[in-house]
Amino acid sequence: MSASDRTRVQRGEVITRRAELRRVVGTVAPGAGWLLVFFAIPLLLIVTVSFLSRGQYGTVEGPFTFENYRRLAGFGWLGFDPLYPIILLRSVTLGLVTTALAVLGGLPLAFFMARVGRRWKRIVIALVLIPFWTNLLVRTYAWQILLAPDGWLAAATTAAGLTTAGEALYPGALAVYACLVCDYLPFLVLPLYASVEKINWTLAEAARDLGANRWNVFRHAILPQIQPGLIAGSLLVFLPATGQFVIPDLLGGAKTTLLGNLVQQQFGPNLDWPFGSAIAVVSLVIVLVTLGLLARQHGSEEELA
Amino acid sequence: MLEPVVSTQPAVEVVNVSRRFGLCAALTDLHLKIGAGEFLSILGPSGCGKTTLLRIIAGLDLPDAGSIHLFGRDVTRVPAHQRPVNTVFQSYALFPHLTVRDNIAFGLRMKKVAAEESKRRVAAVMETTQIAELADRKPSGLSGGQSQRVALARALVNEPKVLLLDEPLGALDLKLRRQLQGELHSLQRRLGITFVFVTHDQEEALALSDRIAVMNEGRIEQLGGAQELYEHPRNRFVARFLGACNLLPGIVRGIDGASLIISTSLCEIKALPAQGVRAFTIGNACTLAVRPEKMILRDAADGPRSGELEARILGAIYNGAATTFELDINGTQIHVTSMSGVASENRKPGRRLFVLPPGPENSIVLED
After folding, report:
1. What is the pTM of this model?
2. Interchain CB contact of B106 with A (< 8 Å)
3. A121-153 per-residue burial string, b: 16 or more CB within 10 A, e: under 16
4. ipTM of the complex
5. Which of B52, B83, B110, B113 to mutate to probe the A interface, most A CBs <10 Å?
6. What is the pLDDT of residues A4-34, one digit of tens each?
């Protein structure tokens, strides 16, 4: 009898090593295969292309070069021009501000959802999820209607003396952020709500008992407990918001270029796939480094705990 | 050793406190005075309102009526973080993201105590509670007994005037519980802090406390020292909750000075009425309370002596130090505990034993 045929008991089930191996392969293979064909190989292609050059007619040609990355860092033919770093920074700012606003709005909402009774809870969760049932573009155009010069919101701000009659509330930063926060709030609220539900409120009482005022109770007894949900939710907002360009285009007036536009231009009108790939790789690296740092901080806490 | 704090003012005074949760009354018009430096236990079954009372004293709950005074000052509306009391929670409630040292220092940090002094006080209290070597661990790496010590240290470091303990030893195994009881007791004596100790373990209450408040259904049934409660229970609840007790229905047949003559299904027994109950008159129905160990058992080798009753063994529970017999005497079932006096071969069901009924000092007449 070979070692691989040895049986053992796992979760109450008697199973041989070979059967277990078969089962693992059976469950992992479809997903792994999908990822390999549609994610890993294309990603490898993008990374490769980012080190090649654009041919005269938009073809991808050799030789191997770092030129695309140099260009992205701001070193072009005309010396240093911070255009691309600024676009990068602008996109990250867009993502950060959206995340911050979503956290400000999402925190009270998550606590509210955790506090309401069982019956209302389902209704509130459904309300939070409703935006998902509509296409992003439809929602964004809806904002244009809502913020139009003859809309009731514009009428209200005119009445309040904030705008002049016949003036639309878009394009502008306010409209962009209003729409972004509305779109991405559910991504933050749902994981946050899951954390808030699990809060051990005795810790808040203990902090109170030890002399903590309201802010310190939140800071030292509540915040550490919801931190995992807050980080997960913030990432789910930050990552797509940073790459977002449709909403800023439609509600921001298409006056500024963002990371999303830039990539789209390279693969579309400019036919510069190598440069587009370099931008994609750089933004991917930024995201991975951020995730790595967060995971390491969180991991070191878990390790101690 | 510190001199006991001499103060005419009670450390804690609970005045007419009531608290309801929906239809359920947790506390009903409750009065309680706790002296400075006293170790007071609040003893009662689960759901009797003892934890609610503790939370109201701590400021974690608000009474519907009545007031709480700490050293003469009305603190009913003072928020928890401004009261000079600290709580040791039943679940310990240690902050999982902080080390043991930071957990203990938390209260001092909130009060902005200088770093040097904080460090000194934290080190001192860790020494007192014998957890110095755990300083850098996180709560998830602690055993139950260690967590308990950390919770205690975290409260004590603030030098509270009153320490509230909510079943702090409830989650620990028996041996560890006994050990920590001893430590708590000597710690309280040494520090002179007023301890209010909530428990449902009567042995714990008897062993630790200066006084015990026995609570039932939101009221204090009786307040007194351990011996007073055990030997002079005021009603059936206290008699039965504190230790084992035989409760025999009876009728008052005669009055002989301070004592009463009660006829029961066993025999006529002379007994003293409980303190603080109404006067009995002849013909009143009453309950006679007799502790199982207050009756004397004898092997039935030579037949009954004068005054002894014949009993048949229904069952016996041997617990090492003593044996408790369930006996049948003329159709009445009672429990009698004997330290010795019955040979092991005579402990079997069906055997005969002789029981000497209790004297007046060992039986108490309670209201029916």
Report:
1. 0.81
2. yes
3. beeeeeebeeeeeeeeeeebeebbebbeeeeee
4. 0.83
5. B110
6. 467 888 888 888 888 888 989 999 999 999 9
